[in-house]
Amino acid sequence: MTRRPIKRHCGGSRTRPFPFSSFGRTSALVASTRRQSSPLKQPRNNVLESPGQGYTKKALKEKNIQQESSSEEDDEETVQADFAFFDPKPDDFHGVKILLQSFLDNKQWDLSGFVDLILGQTTVGTVIKIEDAEDDTPFSVVTALNLGRYKDHRCITEIKDFLLKVSQKDVTCDLRVLLEESAHYVGLLVSQRVVNLPPQLLPPLYDALFDEVSWATEDEVR
Known about the structure:
InterPro entries: BCP1_family. The chain is an alpha+beta fold.
């Protein structure tokens, strides 16, 4: 008697009989569709293990790539530069103006005239630049302006008005005395720098400013 062949299912999913209720038929149809549309799992790549180390070659390779990438990023982020102090000069106008853009909270005022005062005062003031660089842009500026000497300049008047406007009411009277009656004894400190300037430069920068103010005062007394 001839034996009948046995039918085999090769990867296909069996179709289950649908229940009688509409909800049951819908649930069974969704479940059947999900089973048929699920992706096949791809076989894993064979990875050879390094004997006695516990690491795979693939893991070691990825680790080396990460280390090289981290090393390259460190090299890109590290910038070597030699900073030096210079006296302000007319060529620094645009660089100093950019540094002082937010000096009065982005208020529209005579900023150009203010920069001219800073650059025109040759006895007091310092700018920081990169030494022997093609780009002569200043990274910091610090100076002190006597409010009495420059009281008639429009930019100084606007600064005084701004300070009186933003100050608290309980100090407005005292501040007005300093800005007007005692203006000859008051120096306006101007200090601005880029965010990533090395902080180690600030102490000698301010020391130089106080020395310049002292020397300028002595010269005026003489």
